[in-house]
């Protein structure tokens, strides 16, 4: 039997098919993005019946209100009973509609319900938070629902799940997925268990799980997250910022990365993250000296396409079987050429990194055009001087280039003609350099040859 009140019948008769003048809101929740679904029309509020009410219907309401994604479609007046009209029943949305009024239903004001069947919605906005961390981007995962905060169980909790939380909160990439109430135990309800995200979702509530409020956990298993906001990565003990030992810094100190499985794909991500070009070498065995303090990452496994080292797989934050004698390092392409023994980074003996070591350039035919390319490559302005005869002291190891012949327009010294890689008739007494006169503000400043 269908119950149609006089008010409902009049509403059904007078309301235009477009419902252009009707509005929707959520009431009796903790914020505007959860509550009983109510529709305002022609000076009256009315409700929606929960017959057939599901997550697809809730999704449309959340979209219509600008409240993110649907977390739950509630029934049985979970946000209290409304009064007055019941405007919609047997609502059937696909989930793609922009408005609840575009969904099919039994007819405006036609229903077989009472207000104890009023439908409700919980949307994702303002429903998730990280607590008990050192900043808003780390801590125990807590969810606001039905006027209270609750937690997430750590069963199957991993970096993909943490990645979604960090994205949802605008906290960068996930650094760690924490378990066993590492940020302390919460209280009240445990809302989610067996969370399974792919890592690409925009909200934790789009991920699979056991069911809202269904779990087999205690608060000793509360899940946590550490996001990358507040964490920085740098290369130390190299000749410039684009080579060195990999170090991670945050408010509580600095730590290193273990070289287990450390390879060029991992180094590639570090170089990209630092804006240092491409990876030239992934070094191991503390080749840039041993760090101190914590070892944060071990068994790092990047594909090489990630934008941050924190997006790569690893053993787990702080979990390792290493000592600092295994600290990982990186040499990036922007560090493959350097000027050393000068008074600043834009003057000195020309040195090149190759095959795990630094070597020099012979001064045969070395001139201002060659120096111009080095200065351009290093972002040091225009060349004014090219030096010879080891003006900045003799290097050691290999002599990589001889008879260099640049036009001066190349973007890299390695685009210039030369005798052949490693082929030369020189000694280190002929090492080439570039000179800088400080007041010129340029790379070079005075023609010096001997």
UniProtKB/TrEMBL annotation:
GO BP terms: namely: zymogen activation
Q: Which InterPro entries match?
A: SRCR, SRCR-like_dom_sf
Tell me the leader sequence span: 1-20
Instruction: Specify the domain of life of the species encoding this protein.
Output: Eukaryota
Choose one Gene Ontology CC annotation of this protein and give it: plasma membrane
Q: Quote any Pfam family the record assigns.
A: SRCR
Q: What is this protein called?
A: SRCR domain-containing protein
Q: Where is the SRCR domain?
A: 24-124, 128-228, 233-333, 337-437
Record's SMART domains?
A: SR (SM00202)
Record GO terms (molecular function): serine-type endopeptidase activity
Q: Which cysteines are joined by disulfide bonds?
A: 49-113, 62-123, 93-103, 153-217, 166-227, 197-207, 258-322, 271-332, 302-312, 362-426, 406-416
Entries under PANTHER family matching the protein: SCAVENGER RECEPTOR CYSTEINE-RICH TYPE 1 PROTEIN M130-LIKE (PTHR48071:SF27), SRCR DOMAIN-CONTAINING PROTEIN (PTHR48071)
Protein source organism:
Catharus ustulatus (Russet-backed thrush)
Q: What keywords were assigned to this record? A: Disulfide bond, Glycoprotein, Repeat, Signal
